[in-house]
Amino acid sequence: MHKIFDIAIVGAGPGGIASSVEAVLLGLKNVVVFEKSQNHSDTIRKYFKDNKRVDKDWKGIKVELRGNIHFTDGTKENTLNLFDTLVKNEDIKAYFNEEVYSIEKQEDKLFKITTTKENCFYAKNIVISIGTMGKPNKPSYKIPPTLKQKINFNISQCSQNEKLLIVGGGDSAVEFAYYTANQNRVTLAYRKESFSRVNPTNLHYLFDYVEKGIIDLRLSLDIKKLEDNQGKIEVHFSNGQTELFDRIVYALGGFNPTDFLKRCSVILDENNSAVVDENLRNNQDGIYLAGDIARSNVGGSIALALNHGYIITNHIKNTNRV
Ligand SMILES: Cc1cc2nc3c(=O)[nH]c(=O)nc-3n(C[C@H](O)[C@H](O)[C@H](O)COP(=O)(O)OP(=O)(O)OC[C@H]3O[C@@H](n4cnc5c(N)ncnc54)[C@H](O)[C@@H]3O)c2cc1C
């Protein structure tokens, strides 16, 4: 006979961690977390530059924390330390390097969870908290295979003294630009004429750097194609100019991993976003979505993901689905 978990949580980012911690605090101890990476908070580790400032009210979205996790403004390191302490809770069982492949509702109303290693687990409730960064959006033109190492989707591989082109017009692009600008020659290119979805603090930092000549900002500029020019990236811009760069970092956002959600019996709307009610429940059957994946068309934040964990676990407890 297989062990049956009360709650199985997919993804150990802020949404998954909060769901597990709040569940345990509510006395729901039969909880398991699956994380595809070797450690929790993979998005924060991979996409946040060292010492990055972490805002609680990110992108200006004010969030009143409802749960028991005391998250405040800080840095990448503070935030990871907070989550490190939380996941050490002995009552939370976590499997790392275990990527969930599919979730299937069985006739006995239990969910069967299958991982890419073909391990199977069973649970009464599911919390999907996989974020939206798993698969970054990519440009539509071809990336020459010989340049693949130099074309990145986050700044973890950036070092110093490089001529860098950052492409995008959201908070990630702006943050990537000013985090790398002190050690590199940075150009930020955005295809629109102004930034409409960047938070004011980030814009302030950006324009300060632009005024001081530390960042070369080019608006209304798109890219038509890339070529390998003796190991450098030759960028063909929409204004007809070409220029050589050592590295390009695209920050074009991430998309909703629709195929995964479909394999997990999640109901999607016409835009392939998960449908959730005020309790973050996808349907009547015990599937919940927490964090960015629950807000794929409006964007999320750490604080919002933490609140989702609180709301979901209270709902599970109150509806006696354990
Ligand atoms: C550059 C950048 C800067 C940001 N700055 C801030 C900030 O200052 N303040 C703020 O509040 N927010 C910030 N954010 C947003 C914040 O990171 C997200 O809102 C938050 O991480 C969402 O948490 P989550 O749990 O939904 O998803 P994630 O943090 O993305 O975590 C998802 C986890 O699920 C795992 N996973 C994915 N698929 C599977 C699978 N199939 N099986 C098992 N595990 C899986 C992943 O490995 C990952 O660990 C920033 C984001 C970026 C990219």
TrEMBL record:
Gene3D superfamilies xrefs: FAD/NAD(P)-binding domain
Keyword Zinc: no
Pfam families noted in UniProt: Pyr_redox_3
GO molecular function: oxidoreductase activity
InterPro entries in alphabetical order: FAD/NAD-bd_sf, Ferredoxin-NADP_redctase_2
Keyword annotations from UniProtKB, A to Z: Flavoprotein, Oxidoreductase
Protein name: Cbb3-type cytochrome oxidase assembly protein CcoS
Lineage, highest ranks first: Bacteria, Pseudomonadati, Campylobacterota, Epsilonproteobacteria, Campylobacterales
